[in-house]
Design brief:
The complex is a heterodimer of chains A (173) and B (359).
Chain A (H helix, E strand, L loop, with lengths): L13 E5 L6 E5 L1 H14 L6 H13 L2 H9 L9 H7 L7 H4 L1 H12 L21 H14 L3 H20 L1
Antiparallel strand pairs in A: 1-2
Chain B lengths: L2 H6 L15 E10 L12 H16 L7 E5 L5 H9 L5 H5 L5 E5 L4 E5 L5 E8 L3 H16 L6 E2 L3 E2 L11 E8 L1 H5 L3 H10 L2 E5 L11 E6 L7 H47 L5 H16 L8 H10 L2 H8 L5 H21 L7
Antiparallel strand pairs in B: 1-5, 1-8, 2-3, 3-4, 4-5, 6-7, 8-10, 9-10
Classes of the chains: A mainly alpha (173), B alpha+beta (359).
The structure holds zinc ion (2 copies).
One zinc ion binds next to α1 of chain A.
């Protein structure tokens, strides 16, 4: 016998994992009830710019199992260290490299918000190609701060030289 | 920049000139940009913030092509001064209320400002009176190029300009117009009109608005999408809807006049009377009454006050402005008294001795 919707007698065709409570909770709903449930969740999030939090929540609820999501949440950007969970909570990314680190996860989100996935407008006059290379500086500076915090001054000075060399190479570029 | 002097003056965008300025209060464009080699703001250390601030501030102050720009260190300002810049719409509430190194560069005529270390490293905004998006775009595009000559913006081959929030990625551009729509509010058609705008992915917000009731019947219409469309397409999308809104508002005004010119005339005259004679008045009531008077002036029902005066009163009767003009801190009750006196000074001389205006 098929599972019944929590709210009515119809068969439950949507299985939503609610993550906002203390424990992840499985909700089994029919299509109609699922839609009104998800709409409600969206209304509660930031009015005005409804998109980000609501869209992300909806997308993740429909697409993943709890385990997949837990694993995704722990993934971190190698440059700035932000985890996907932190991004999800704050709605703000940590550094420009996140668009590379979380490319696959961001793609459907961008399509949902903008109805598109590629920029066609203005490009910078001077440096109009990808600047992702330069995020290496963010990583190096972070490493250096960690080394200083651990009082590993030898490592810190190595990193300082690396940063300087990188900056000089970029300026000469 | 001396903020006390700024308080007495009035920005270019409040002049009440420019096309359709009876209904279109102002046009604005903002661009969000980030430096390629720093984390986005939320993950910056204080050291990062200070370096970003210095780099961008010096870049702009040293540019020969951007004269008459002053720098204001927002982190060092007293709360009332920060609030003053928010009321003036030169900085955002977010920049005012956040912590750490942050600042703003302000054009002497208040035609543009550049916020540093807001949600993104750089937020450029250009504002003008009336419906003037094309010239605003030309100006902001030029400022953007001037900054980029010396700094490297975070850019992605496929995604364009990279921003802290994915809702701004691509062009990083927000195009907006501020509309004064009192007749659509009175005739209760405003919600219906806005629902149709949301269907074509335009956002609507009230002035200073948190709640749904816009202060002074001002509404801001802006694009929501920033990725996958060119800047001129985004401008066109907003521009195209403005004449439609203007037409709705004009028809609602005509309807009100036809239905009962006497009632409408009574309504705006009473509003004017209260503003001229009240002894204590809240900010909310002032905004509501100014809105009626503004419509009355535009319909020729009130003749002894000019639109730029009204536009300026919307800003100058805000709490921080009153305190700057008065030169001291005032609590809510004192502000309400000061506001009433300020309104009298601005509105009554013109009424009493028309022509022989004195201070
Ligand atoms: Zn159901
Ligand atoms: Zn990152």
């Amino acid at each position: 016998m098929p599972m019944k919707c929590l709210n009515c007698e119809k068969p439950a065709t949507f299985h939503i994992t609610e993550l906002t409570g203390e424990q992840p909770q499985e909700l089994h709903l029919c299509e109609e009830c699922a839609r009104s449930y998800l709409m409600q969740a969206e209304d509660k999030s930031d009015a005005g710019a409804p998109t980000l939090a609501g869209v992300l929540a909806q997308q993740l609820k429909l697409g993943q199992t709890a385990q997949e999501l837990a694993k995704l949440d722990q993934r971190a950007c190698p440059v700035c260290g932000i985890t996907f969970y932190e991004f999800r909570q704050q709605g703000r990314l940590g550094c420009p490299h996140d668009y590379v680190s979380f490319e696959k996860e961001l793609e459907p989100l961008l399509v949902n918000i903008h109805g598109d996935h590629a920029h066609v407008g203005k490009r910078p006059k001077r440096v109009a190609q990808s600047t992702d290379r330069r995020t290496e500086l963010i990583r190096l500076r972070r490493e250096m701060e960690k080394a200083v915090a651990k009082e590993d001054y030898e490592r810190a000075s190595q990193l300082r030289d690396q940063i300087r060399a990188f900056e000089e190479k970029e300026e000469g570029h | 920049m001396n903020l006390d002097e700024l308080a007495e003056r009035c920005g270019e965008w409040l002049k009440g000139s420019g096309p359709e300025s009876d209904i279109v209060m102002s046009s604005r464009i903002r661009l969000a940009r980030n430096l390629a080699d720093y984390p986005f703001i939320r993950r910056c250390t204080e050291q990062d913030r200070a370096k970003i601030l210095r780099t961008l501030r010096d870049r702009i102050l040293n540019s020969q092509e951007l004269p008459n720009v002053s720098y204001v260190d927002v982190a060092a300002l007293a709360p009332v001064d920060r609030q003053f810049l928010v009321e003036r719409q030169l900085i955002s509430r977010e920049l005012s209320e956040s912590e750490g190194s942050r600042g703003v560069l302000i054009d002497a005529e208040e035609k543009f400002s550049v916020m540093i270390n807001e949600e993104d490293h750089v937020r450029i905004q250009v504002m003008s009176s009336g419906l003037a998006l094309q010239s605003a775009w030309e100006q902001i595009n030029r400022i953007d190029d001037l900054i980029e000559q010396k700094v490297t913006y975070a850019f992605h081959e496929r995604l364009g300009y990279l921003t802290a929030c994915p809702t701004n990625v691509g062009t990083g551009m927000r195009v907006s117009v501020m509309l004064h729509l009192p007749a659509l509010v009175i005739t209760k058609q405003i919600d219906k009109v806005f629902r149709s705008l949301q269907k074509i992915s335009l956002a609507v917000r009230g002035l200073y608005g948190e709640g749904s009731q816009a202060m002074g019947d001002f509404y801001q219409i802006s694009n929501q999408i920033t990725l996958g469309r060119r800047e001129d397409e985004l401008i066109r999308q907003v521009s195209e809807v403005v004449p439609v809104m203007i037409d709705y508002e004009r028809r609602a005004r005509e309807f009100l006049i036809k239905q009962s010119q006497k009632d409408l005339h009574d309504r705006v005259s009473r509003a004017y009377g209260i503003l001229c004679t009240a002894q204590t008045i809240s900010s909310e009531e002032t905004m509501m009454l100014l809105s009626s008077v503004r419509m009355g002036v535009n319909l020729g029902l009130i003749e002894d006050v000019a639109i730029p005066t009204i536009n300026q009163l919307f800003i100058h009767t805000q709490p921080a402005h009153l305190q700057k003009i008065r030169g001291m801190e005032l609590d809510t009750a004192d502000r309400n008294v000061e506001r009433a006196h300020y309104l009298q000074r601005q509105l009554r001389p013109r009424k009493a001795d028309d022509g022989t205006e004195k201070n």
